[in-house]
Amino acid sequence: MILVMKIGSPEAEINRIDEELTNWGLTPEKIIGKHKVVIGLVGETVDLDPLQIQEISPWIEQVLRVEQPYKRASRQFRHGEASEVIVNTPDGAVIFGENQPLVVVAGPCSVENEEMIVETAQRVKAAGAKFLRGGAYKPRTSPYAFQGHGESALDLLAKAREVSGLGVITEVMDAAELEKIAEVADVIQVGARNMQNFSLLKKVGAQPKPVLLKRGMSSTIEEWLMAAEYILAAGNSSVILCERGIRTFDRQYTRNTLDLSVVPVLRKLTHLPIMIDPSHGVGWAEFVPAMAIAAVACGSDSLMIEVHPNPKKALSDGPQSLTPERFDQLMQELSVVGKAVGRWPQTVAALV
After folding, report:
1. Which domains does the chain have, with CATH numbers?
2. Is 205:178 a contact under the CB 8 Å cutoff?
3. Strands, DSSP E only, in the chain?
4. N or C: less crowded end of the chain, CB within 10 Å?
5. What is the rounded radius of gyration, in angstroms, for the C-alpha atoms of the chain?
6. Quick one: pLDDT at residue 351?
7. Is residue 275 scored above 90 in pLDDT?
8. Span 180-200, mean pLDDT?
């Protein structure tokens, strides 16, 4: 349930309403929009009469029920306005959001050694990327596959961050590693295999760093949004949704099926920023550029692209990784579409 306040509502009156509703056993959440203040009510609201709430204050313009089960993630919870996730990086604040320039995240699947991760960071930074992706802990289908270097890889990510000025996005697999990862990462990633690890979602939601939530490989959109709801309900409002391909009946030609239809669907359902990962979505480097361009054209707020200086020698996901040279070319291609749809930052346009 949400309370839409009239334009010009006094701060003292909003605080009084918050206090009264808290005494009712509800949890009010104040959302300051461009034009109005909205108060979201979380708790047992099923039996509440909207007319009764309306009588609390003459400054309440409207009382609406949020019909979706994902209350905080619902676009209705923010009265139709999109939210933004602001991430502080060494080079300054970067904003993920519907009305912001496209944010490109790039880097290898796994952190292998210092030379590789620093070189990759510098190359993708020069091309216009704002974040470095790189796995320190890697969930793999086979127990015999490379699992990442763990804590030592976090040190290498910190070094690459220092040298390049890029923000860092890396994955958490276990709550026991969360504190160490948060010391290095600017954004904490919850991978597809952990999308419904609810205890991990609660722990990630209880810490302040922004969270990137990847869609589970067989998850519906509603299940994905309910997973985001766990993070939001735990107190962390900075969540970015990442589509990385889902499992369908045809896996002969692509690793997964990249579901670009989620972009307009999510835009209708949720206020959260949207990222597309075409690398995992298709699994082959030759198909990644086309899907990245399509993602920008259909309105994605961000892209995550795997880049490796020598994909043939990569310890994981080499076949889907672009070389730095191909990434440079892709960024030029993306600029054409990005400018056309009004999502290309001028600073990047100058580089390419």
Report:
1. 2-65 (3.30.70.1140), 84-351 (3.20.20.70)
2. no
3. 2-5, 27-32, 37-42, 60-64, 84-89, 92-97, 103-107, 131-133, 167-172, 187-190, 211-214, 239-243, 274-276, 302-306
4. C
5. 21
6. 46
7. yes
8. 97
